[in-house]
Amino acid sequence: MTPSIVATREYKFFMDGEWRESRSGETIDIHSPYLPEVIGKVQAVSRVEVDEAIEAAHLAQIKWADKSLQERSAYLYKWADELVHMQDEIAETIMKEVGKTLADAKKEVVRTADFIRYTVGEAQHINGESMRGDNFPGGSKSKLAIVERVPLGVVLAISPFNYPVNLSAAKIAPALIAGNAVIFKPATQGALSGTKMIQALHKAGLPNGIINLITGRGSDIGDYLVEHPGINMISFTGGTKTGKNLAKKSAMVPLVMELGGKDPAIVREDADLYEAANHIISGAFSYSGQRCTAIKRVLVHENVADELVKQLRVEVENLTVGSPEDGNTVVPLIDTKSADFVEGLIKDAARQGAEVLTGNKREGNLIYPTLIDYVNTEMRIAWEEPFGPVLPIIRCTSDEEAVNIANKSEYGLQTSIFTRDINKAFALASKIETGSVQINGRSERGPDHFPFLGVKGSGMGVQGIRKSIDSMTREKVIVLNLS
Ligand code: NAP
Ligand code: G3H
């Protein structure tokens, strides 16, 4: 593959309406996960510049919140249009930077434009309420409370690498429409895609200071941003370890966190095994399992386990493997550390007696899709999130055992239940400790207006378009004392 013209371009950060080089004089090389080249450089923004950006955001936010909702909507609609215009360029950057196929990268951009438009529509239907004092015993009819939703101020949006555009815009759009200014810190591996997304927002003519793109390693500036007294709300998506650190560091600031997962697929004895296998394969292996909602373990009834495993194995062996540029499903993982981690989980399971049915081959960061049967609860793969193309099968003797193993996890993002018995499905769903339960379908985030949440180590608070707007606003009560 010939390096593209933009291959070694140095990107600027964006602050108070201007693209700038950092006064730190330092840049960070962004390597492609699958090409032997540096595909761009981003600025390592200094602490002083973080201070300046937050100050600019505060000043700009006051005027932004003062604009009518229709005015703010117009900017967001233009942003969505610009993203669609730039979809080829942005998708190519996503592909090169995070190793997603071009088709999936384009879907991500278009999904983001749809997300932004829906966010505007949703905000236009949010109304406050009024309350009369005499609804409460002894209260006076002459008191009238007017309850409105107002912005929080400056929102810090921190996003992960795997959906560098969609999961970033899923924070920025609700924040902006509600009248907040934003400090956006993309994942470093994802910062080029994030920069292109902000270029689209800049083209939409957003007033200076409302959106600020701060690039730099989380290990250098993450804590500084999170602890900054100028931040009024944090919306974070990333790993559980990073999220826990962030929760300890931030103080008295509303926090919404979407974190890791270990989503189980529970396959009952009465399931349609063909359907279940299809959903499980796409849930577990698309984009090499680098989705928070990927199916990361199968808890199958022992009476149908052989048949399910047989079908899964055929499908795993049919998965296409290789470069994202050729449209493969299983692609190189984001970096060597991630590939080492996944390899370690497979080795641990094999050493403890699990049967590795297929896969278990590695070329650089490319881990071949791996199916492991007879996994037990002593093995790390039963509990740890691989974020890679490996699927452990745990055979269970009953629904109760499956639910117990599902719930014993430190995570609680989603669960899939496969069964033909809808009553059983609901009975099991009510016992499952995850934010969402999918009946006869793979775990997944969308559609994006559904509430999306993790419990336990998988997060706090709720996203999903309406819920995200709610989380970035607060109630304000004005009491009218009528004479
Ligand atoms: P990560 O390593 O936790 O990084 C996430 C973000 O946090 C990045 O922007 C990172 O910046 C930043 N960060 C690092 N240290 C920080 C600190 N001390 N303070 C503040 N921010 C800091 O996660 P990832 O590898 O990008 O993403 C994979 C993980 O995210 C998986 O566990 C996956 O399940 C989870 N995820 C969850 C959801 C969900 O909706 N539940 C969605 C997507 C992904 P740098 O890149 O500069 O280090
Ligand atoms: O990685 C986490 C994303 O929120 C998953 O989204 O289920 O649409 O792939 P998805």
UniProtKB/TrEMBL annotation:
The UniProt entry, under InterPro entries, shows:
Ald_DH/histidinol_DH, Ald_DH_C, Ald_DH_CS_CYS, Ald_DH_CS_GLU, Ald_DH_N, Aldehyde_DH_dom, ALDH-related_metabolic_enz
Q: What positions does UniProt annotate as the active site of this protein?
A: 258
The answer, when asked if Transmembrane is one of the entry's keywords, is: no
Q: Print the keywords alphabetically.
A: NADP, Oxidoreductase
Q: Which GO terms describe its molecular function?
A: lactaldehyde dehydrogenase (NAD+) activity
- Supply the SUPFAM superfamilies for this chain: ALDH-like (SSF53720)
Provide the Aldehyde dehydrogenase domain boundaries.
Answer: 19-477
Q: Which family does it belong to?
A: Belongs to the aldehyde dehydrogenase family.
Q: What is the protein's name according to its record? A: NADP-dependent glyceraldehyde-3-phosphate dehydrogenase
Record the organism: Ornithinibacillus halotolerans
